[in-house]
Amino acid sequence: MTFLKQVVGIAIAAVVIFGGYQLVDDWLEPDSPARDARAARGPSAIPVELAVARASPMERTLEAVGTTRAQRSVEIVPLASGRVTELSFESGEKVEKGEALLHLDDDIEAANLKEAEAKRLEAARALERAASLRESKTVTAATLETLTAASVTAEAELARAQRRLDDRTVRAPFGGITGLKRVDLGARVDDQTVVTTLDDLSSVEVEFALPETVFGEVKTGLPVRAESVAFPGRDFSGKIVAIDSRVDGTSRSFKVRAAIPNSDLALPAGMFMNLAVVLEKRVVVLVPEEAVMAEGEGSFLFVADGETARRRLVEIGQRRSGMVEVAEGLSDGEKVVTRGIQQLRDGSQIRPIKDAAEPEDGSGGLG
Predict the structure, then answer these.
(1) What is the pLDDT of residues 153-198, one digit of tens each?
(2) Where are the alpha helices (DSSP H) in the chain?
(3) DSSP secondary structure string, 296-314?
(4) Where residue 163 sits, what CATH number does that domain have?
(5) Across the chain, which distance is largest between two alpha carbons, in Å?
(6) CA distance 338 to 340
(7) How many domains does the chain have?
(8) Which domain holds residue 294?
């Protein structure tokens, strides 16, 4: 009986203490809004933070690395041997198609051209006289044929002489940017001497490899984004222009080429680039990653239904920049719990302590 009396005494003391606490609380704050709110929610309201699920564009991308190369690139070499008498370009200069880059000494070729012009003129006049005499039967047909052949030969010699003279000047085969000078004024060069390089950088190509698992999804025309550490914060946009027809048996990957417009000539040939191939663009529902909890092989989150938390199974997709895609189980505009989840059960009463924030757009970056 002594033990039973002790238990009864403890219970009575607890009731008296709790009742006294309530009386003091009512006496100190008889009209407190906070006390009224607590009474309305009940004693189990759990403080939580909420976020709004929003439909946002998202891209499914593949990452790769590659190196730029000029749309067209050649080594400039003379078509003849000789001494350099004039250099008409500077290193890194933009030149137009047909613009003269280098001149070789051409005294002999110029003299040969004059000689060929004189021979052509002589042959043409001889043929003209023979043709007029042929009408009076003074000149035989055989003589006329011989003079005709001589005139054609003189025309050919003139053309060859003109070509040899033209070859003393090296011209740009297309518009582009010249490289470093590799010869100096007065140097002797031949048809094996590289004078400089010429790159057409109005557009650059980047070649890179992708895994064979996406061979069926990659098509010409797909958009590509590129970044370089040399240009922090800047994205270069392009598209796929060529796909290799073979998969490498060792790496199990295939080659792809993308073209990137380069109107300001910012990108040189040979620059390392990080790339993202955009396979698909779609609108998805995004929530902060901390709102989603794993459960076995699935995931769930808590949706705010007024002041009640409802547990909901969801299917998640891609993750990006602290956000996660909810592929199934959630609609645009619903509020989800992001803080205080560990204390919640399905049907728990909640008390938001922070306004719901909208997720950021998940479409940025290289993916």
Answers:
(1) 999 999 999 999 999 999 999 999 999 999 999 999 999 999 999 9
(2) 2-28, 33-41, 107-134, 141-166
(3) TTEEEEEEEETTEEEEEEE
(4) 1.10.287
(5) 164
(6) 7
(7) 3
(8) 46-56+282-357
